[in-house]
Amino acid sequence: MSTATISTANARTELETMQAELHGLVDEIQRVVVGQDSVIHGVVTCLLAGGHGLLEGVPGLGKTLLIRTLADAVHLDFARIQFTPDLMPADIVGTSVLVRDEGGGDRHLQYQSGPIFSNIVLADEINRATPKTQSALLEAMAERTVTAAGVTRTLPDPFLVLATQNPLEMEGTYPLPEAQLDRFLFKIHVEFPDEDDLVSILDRTTGRDDAKAKPVIGGPRILEMRELIRSIPVAPSLTRYVVRVLKATHPPDGGGPASDLVQRYVRFGASPRGAQAMLLAARVRCALHGRPTPSIDDVLAVAPPALRHRMILNFEGEAEGISIDDCITQILDSVPADS
Amino acid sequence: MMTPNLERLLRAVRRRARWADTAHALGQVALPSALLIAAATVVGSRFLGSPIELAWISAAVVPAVMAWTWLRPRPLRQVARQVDTHFGLDDRLGSALEFGAPCADEHPRTAAFKALVRDDAEALAASLDYRRVIPIRLPPPRRIDALAAAALAAAMLLPPRQVPATPARIAPTPTATLATERMGPGLDLARAEPLRQDLRELRGQDDPAARTADALLELLDKLESGEIDRRFAMAELERLESMLLEAEEQFEASLEEDPAMLAEAVRALAEALEEHEITREAARALERGDSDEVEQSLAEAGDDTADPSDAERQLERAMADAERRLREAAQKSRDTARKLAEEERRLKRQERRPAEDREEQERRLKHQRERVEQLRRKHEREMAAQRKLEELRRQAQKARNGKSGKQRREARQKLGRGAGQAARTARNQRRLGQARDGIEEAKTFVRRAGQKGESQDRRRQQARRFSRAARGKKGKKGKPSLLIEGDVGEGDPSPSMMMEGDGDQPGQGEGQDGDGQDPGPGETGGGESGSPGGEGMGQGSADGLGEGRERDVRHRNLRVDAKHGRGASRAEVISTSSQQGFASEPYRDVYDDYRSFAQSAMDNEEIPTAMRRLVKRYFKQIQPRD
Questions:
Q1: Cα A172 to Cα A175: distance, rounded to the nearest angstrom
Q2: Which residue stretches of chain B have pLDDT < 70?
Q3: Burial letters for B274-291: b for 16+ Cβ neighbours within 10 Å, e otherwise?
């Protein structure tokens, strides 16, 4: 009994501490990045949940800045890869090069690791690379390992891929395959800032001072936080709700109780990774708010970024310009909280 | 494992939610439903005659709705979510409800977080006011409520269903309830004054006829003053009629002798006594039905005369006449024994006859047995009446031939007593008949008060029906009417006789050259039909129609015999019975038909009251005695 009491007190303390640190992290990022609260929270969620994030937005909205600032704030290795059509997989994962031994004249192959071997990898404009290059990220994102020259190498922990893509410029791009999209925890829309935020951006970026984030959390602490977040209990009814939402993303022939939009315009619903993403992100969100268990509101908040890249519209939906977010909103409205 | 504060809070909220649901359902569902059901049942009672008590079904909606709201499953998890949503608790109470005891393989930190959630929920539950979660308030009125209320009000305003007057007995209604149906101006019953006069004459006795007369007078007064309406008056008349019917049945059951025979004998006896000065007082008492007075008058007849021997002679002659009249009355053939024997033979034949339709056979046998039983009872009563009259005749004989004056006096006394009893019986029967007539007449007044505008159409329809029935047409639904026994004749259905006239006389139209030689078949006014025969036009007279002249047509009376079909029509029955002395139709049936037609005519026509009473008296005089 006493152990439980102590554990309860410790748990409360841990929660409060984590909440304070996370707020510090967010504040530090917001010191550099103006506005974009939801994007910042989404990125932090990906960091704490151990998932990867895909940021979609037009150029100039601070996507790269945000990710670099995050890397600065968490004091982790950061690598930026500018994806271009001629980018090769070896440019990402590394390659073996012939080198001469120091003592003799013998030569041998030595593996030169690529930029993927960083804690935070920014895959800028990921849809500009060829599918072959894009697929080089698959193993790294899913297994957190890289296999090159017959040798599998483990990536550093924490490992986070944050990719960006431009939704407007589609010429000369290679849309990400579904398999790779599914490996992103969130697909975060970066919206155009409002007027106040734009004023602040101008003030900060055109003056003499160049704001730079200071590290507030280290990599080990992030790993601890991940452990703590995964210990947060979830009510069985909430788990079932997440499952119902996931099933509702599927059209009727997929076995789900479809809403109107899903029935007409969705070709495939979200994979089980979508449910995992929702539940994990809901845990992170409740931890960010200092709560010991997630609620339906947490699920509702994280469902759009967790599901929007996992649902595929059919031809009719594409032709009519149906928004996946509208489908998700309708799904969330139609699924009852209690079964 | 639910913490106590949390459990208390959630159960309290659930109770309150049920009350709120009940209030909501009562206002939103039960109220309009009950109103609509009540309206439907009221409409049903107005148009279909369904019992108005069915309206209580609408009250059943209330317990049904309450049962539904209270028995409907409402899990505590759902209630907890409601509380969480209301207070913005991010599902903490609901989650605490689901986090039970820690599992064995659970991570210690997870268990600690669950305990933390429960502790937080318990602390929150203690501080929350559950009454704020679910407000209990009645729903605002809606359009459907107003419509339902309007429907019920409209249904209540519908006129009640008119119950057709049937001879079935109507349960007595307390007279006090008359006041509940007060009307405006009453009916004009000035023409009912003769009826009132008759009813007043019936009063003053302690018998059913007097009581009926009292009730009828009171009813007429209230109807006239508007205290009661026609419908209620008709129901009251039905009640009085049923009571009178009971009294008549009791009177009938108490009779040992045939009252008609007794009445006839008493009338004959009174006529005999009336012819003699010395017994005239007794005769008048006999006509009044005063038995004591008759007994006393006959016993004391001639006591105060100056010439006893003359009185004796007068009494002897009076008693002789009385004896003769009583003998004639007693020996008058009633023909009942013959009818009884005939009906018994018919019954035996029917019993022996093989039945094609068993049910029909049973029905006929039953009817025939009742007929035989009726005749047997009548015969027995006639025999008893004959014995009674024979006894009276012997007393009259004794009163004439007695050896001593005392014996003759005692015989006269017994004669007076017996005759008085017979007179009283006859008088009671007559009074009951008068009371019944009074009820019928009162009904007529009540009916006529509401049928002024329809009387002509109804009269035509009744005349058509009667005419059709008299010619032997089938009744409604293929059943034979009381009037038929044969097919329809081929004569003109019009009751007026057509007469042929010779149209060979010249027309009288001035200004026309023609002489109207065409012998067209004119009707009685053949003079007006002379114009078509002329050739050419007239000479420009502006008055082409000519002057009115007397009929200058040679009439010829023709007898047109009706062409009868198979069987006997009513006309044939009447005709043959008058000529040959027998009738193939029971007199009672014939009488009932004609009397009902006369009655309906009087009900629907503006017939003077005096004439109306005359017709009624006529039918009363010719009514069948049995």
A1: 10
A2: 1, 101-102, 104, 160-189, 191, 333-334, 355, 448-554, 559-585, 604, 625-626
A3: bebebbbbbbbbbbebbb
User: H or E segment at B543?
Assistant: none
For residue A233, the chain B residues in CB contact (below 8 A) are 95, 99, 110, 113-114, 117
CA B367 vs CA B361, B373, B381, B491: distances in Å: 10, 10, 21, 35
**N-to-C CA span, chain B:** 94
Q: What angle do CA B113, B119, B124 make, to 5 degrees?
A: 125
Instruction: Say yes or no for a CB contact (<8 Å) between B113 and A292.
Output: yes
Quick check: A67 contacting B, CB < 8 Å?
no
How far A222 CA lies from chain B's nearest CA (Å)? 17
What's the token pair of residue B285? 């008492």
User: Six-digit token pair at B184?
Assistant: 């405006």
Total residue count of chain A as it appears in this document:
339
Please list every residue in chain B whose beta carbon sits closer than 8 Å to the beta carbon of residue A291: 90, 92
Inter-chain touch A231–B109, beta carbons under 8 Å: yes
Bridge partner list, B501: B522, B555
Integer CA distances (angstroms), A6 to A3, A231, B36, B99, B108, in order: 5, 16, 65, 18, 11
Q: Residue B86 class from Cβ within 10 Å (0-12 exposed, 13-18 middle, 19+ buried)? A: middle
What are the DSSP calls for B40-75, one per residue?
Answer: HHHHHHHHT---GGGGGGGGGHHHHHHHHHHHS---
| Beta-carbon separation of B116 and A236 below 8 A | no
3-state class (DSSP) for residue A112: strand
Beta-bridge partners for A187: A54
Q: Is B113 on the interface with A (CB under 8 A)?
A: yes
Q: Quick one: closest CA in A to B106, which residue?
A: A231
CA–CA separation, A308 and A269 (whole Å): 10
Query: How far apart are alpha carbons A23 and A45 in whole angstroms?
Result: 12
Mean pLDDT per 10-residue section of chain A, whose length is 339 residues: 59 90 92 88 93 90 88 89 90 87 79 91 90 86 86 90 84 83 92 87 78 87 92 92 92 66 87 94 94 93 94 86 90 86
Strand pairing category for A151-154 and A145-148: antiparallel
B75 and A338 in contact by Cβ < 8 A? yes
How does pLDDT run across B406-453, given as a tens digit for each residue?
Answer: 888 888 888 888 888 888 887 888 788 888 888 888 887 777 665 554
Whole-number Å distance between alpha carbons of A162 and A184: 9
Report which residue type is found at B520.
Answer: G
Contact A338 B120 (CB under 8 A): no
Which chain A residues are within 8 Å of B81, Cβ to Cβ? Answer: 337-338
CB of A75 within 8 Å of a chain B CB? The answer is no
Interchain pair A236, B119: CB under 8 A:
no
Q: Is B81's Cβ below 8 Å from some Cβ in A?
A: yes
Q: From CA A64, how far away is CA B471, in angstroms rounded? A: 116
Alpha-carbon distance of B327 to B319, in angstroms, equals 12
Contacts of B2 (CB under 8 A, 6+ apart): B10, B76, B97
Kindly tell me the burial class for residue B622, based on how many C-beta atoms sit within 10 Å of its own C-beta (0-12, 13-18, 19 or more): exposed
Query: Between chain A and chain B, how many beta carbons pairs sit less than 8 Å apart?
Result: 78
From chain A, the residues in CB contact with B77 under 8 A are 237, 338
Q: Which among B95, B108, B117 has CB closest to A7?
A: B108
Q: B90 to chain A, minimum CA–CA distance in Å?
A: 5
Q: Which residue of A has its CA nearest to B76?
A: A338
Largest separation between any pair of C-alpha atoms in chain A: 73
CA B340 to chain centre: 32
- Find out whether A15 and B119 touch, Cβ atoms under 8 Å: no
